[in-house]
Amino acid sequence: MDAQRNDPSPAVEMGEGRMMDEGELDFGFAQEVSAEPGGEGIVKCFACGSCSAGCPVRRFHPTFNPRRIIRMVLLGMRDAVLRDPFVWLCATCFTCQERCPQGVRIADLMRALKNLALRSGNMPEGIPMQVNLLREKGTLYPLDEFDNKKRTKAGLPPLPGAHEDVGVLLGDLADLGRPKEE
Amino acid sequence: MENKTYALFLGCTIPARVRQYEQSVRAVAQRLGIRLVDLEGFACCGFPLEPVDHHAALALGARNLALAEEAGLPICTLCSSCTSALCEVSRTLSRNEEERERTNRLLAKIQRRFQSPVEVRHFVRILLEDMGLDRIREACVRPLDGIRLAAHYGCHLLKPTEIHQGFDSVEDPRVLDDFIRSTGAVPVDYSRKKQCCGGSVLMADQRTALEIARDKLAELRDLEVDALVVVCPFCGVMYDSNQKVMEKIFEETYGIPVLYLPQVLGLAMGMEEKTLGLKSHAVKTKGLLEKLQAQAEG
Ligand code: SF4
Ligand code: SF4
C-alpha cells in the first residue's frame, strides 16, 4: 500500500539553486493579497520564523513552509505561489497565527491564497465534487436510505431536511465541476 | 444553573458517518437535562467552502445562524470546525458592516437575513459552563478507575483565540483532561497533545496527512494509553477510520481505540455500550470494555 505525496515542484525549490529573474516577479502581488480578507497584515511580517517552527505540515512535508510562502508573496513571486499545489497543504490549524509576534493572520492568509489559486484553476481534485454536493444537497454526506436505516437502528431520530435553498444561495459560485474550455 | 434548550447543529459528517458520537451526545444530554432540538433546515456550516470562496462560506454559515435566530435558540455544535466556522461568521458579521451587507445581499436571494450575533458553543463547552465539573462528577456513578485516557484537543475547539474567548488556554489546554479526571480515569500527559490530526491535509497530500496523524498514535502506543479521546468528527475519522491504513503504510501497529468524550462520560454514568454506539468503531473497543468490566468486578 502506498499513499500519494505531492512532489515538490521545481518552482518551489528555486531558492536552493536557481536565481530569480526580475521579469518573473509581479510587484503588485503583495498588494493583491493584502486586499483579500485575511491578507491585510502580511506586510508586517519580519521573517522571524515562529510560524514555520510550530507548523505540523512543515515537520512532515519536504517543502511546505509558511514563512517562506509569505516571503515569496512579498517578493512578488505570483506564479510560483499560485500555480503550485503547496498552498493547499495548509491544515488551517491556527498554530502559526496564535504565535505570530506581528499579528499576521497566517491561517487566514493561507485561505486567501487558496481562494486566489482556485480562481486561476489550481485546486485539489476533490474540490469540485465537494462544491457540487453542497450546492445540490446542502451537505457533504447526504443521507441515503441505507444511512437512515442505520440511524433508526442506532435509535437516532430522522432529521428534518429542507436545505434546497442552499443551491440558490450558492448559485453564483463558479461551476468548478465543468472542465475548463481551452 | 438553569437547563437551557439548544438547536443541535450536527453538520455534514456526524449524521452519516459518526453516529456513535451523536448517540452518546443525545444520551448524555438527556441524562443531564440539556434539551437539544433538531431544527429544520440546518445545512453545512460553510467551513468546507472557506478555501473555495470566503464570501460564499460566510453566506452558507450565516444561513444557519439566521435559522437559529428565527427559532430563538442558541446553537450547540459537536464538530470543532463547525463551532469555529459558525462563531467566526457570527463575529465577523456583527463587527464588519461591509461583510454583513454583502452577506445579507446573498441571503436575500433565499429570503433570510443575519440580524444579530447568535450564541454558538460546542457541546463540551456547554457541559462545562451550564453544568460544571462537579455535577458531571456526581453523575458518574460508575467511575472509570485506572483507565488511562489521552485527550486530543484538535485545532478548532480553541483556535483562533479571539472567537473562543476565555474558554481554555490554547498553549496549555486543560478542559478535556479535567473532564477525563471527573470520570475517575487517568488523563495521560504527552508531548504531541496539541498537535493537529492532519485530517484537512488529506485531500491535498494523503501521505503528509497520515504522517502527522501517525506521529501522535506512535507516541500514545509507547505510553500504553487505553484510548484517545476526541471531540470532533474529523479528528475521530482520522485516528479511528484511518488507523488501519496507517498501520499498513507505516508497517507498525497502534491498536488505540478512539472515543468521543460523551461516550467516556456515558460509560462513567453507567450507560450501555449499545446506547453509546461503542461497537461502531473501526478500532475495536472490546479490550477497553473488558478492562473496565474486570475493574468493576475486581
Ligand atoms: S511568525 Fe509572523 S512575523 Fe514571524 S515569520 Fe511568521 S508571519 Fe512573519
Ligand atoms: S495554519 Fe497552516 S501554515 Fe499555520 S501552522 Fe497550521 S498548517 Fe502550518
Element layout with pairings:
The complex is a heterodimer of chains A (182) and B (298).
Chain A: H1 29-34, H2 50-54, H3 56-60, H4 66-75, H5 78-82, H6 95-99, H7 106-119, H8 127-137, H9 145-153, H10 165-169
Chain B: E1 5-9, H1 13-17, H2 19-32, E2 35-37, H3 54-71, E3 75-77, H4 80-95, H5 97-108, E4 120-122, H6 123-131, H7 133-139, E5 148-151, H8 175-182, E6 186-187, H9 206-222, E7 227-230, H10 233-241, H11 243-249, E8 258-260, H12 261-268, H13 286-297
Helix pairs in contact in B: 2-12, 3-4, 3-5, 4-5
The complex binds iron/sulfur cluster (SF4) (2 copies).
- The number of helical segments of chain B is 13
Overall body shape of chain B: globular
CATH class of the largest domain in chain A: Mainly Alpha
Main CATH class of the largest domain in chain B:
Alpha Beta
Mean pLDDT across all residues of chain B, rounded?
95
Task: Summarize the structure in words.
The complex is a heterodimer of chains A (182) and B (298). Chain A is mainly alpha-helical and 182 residues long. Chain A has two domains: 3-119, Alpha-helical ferredoxin (Fumarate Reductase Iron-sulfur Protein, Chain B, domain 2, Orthogonal Bundle), CATH 1.10.1060.10; 126-174, no CATH class. Chain A has helices spanning 29-34, 50-54, 56-60, 66-75, 78-82, 95-99, 106-119, 127-137, 145-153, 165-169. Chain B folds into two domains: 5-122, Up-down Bundle (Glutathione S-transferase Yfyf (Class Pi), Chain A, domain 2); 141-297, Rossmann fold, CATH 3.40.50.11810. Chain B has helices at 13-17, 19-32, 54-71, 80-95, 97-108, 123-131, 133-139, 175-182, 206-222, 233-241, 243-249, 261-268, 286-297, and strands at 5-9, 35-37, 75-77, 120-122, 148-151, 186-187, 227-230, 258-260. In chain B, the strands form two sheets. Chain B has a four-stranded parallel β-sheet. Chain B has a four-stranded parallel β-sheet with strand order 6-5-7-8, sandwiched between helices. The longest helix of chain B has 18 residues, at 54-71. Chain B is globular. Chain B starts with a strand and ends with a helix. One iron/sulfur cluster binds at residues 51, 54-57, 66, 90-96, 106-107, 110 of chain A.
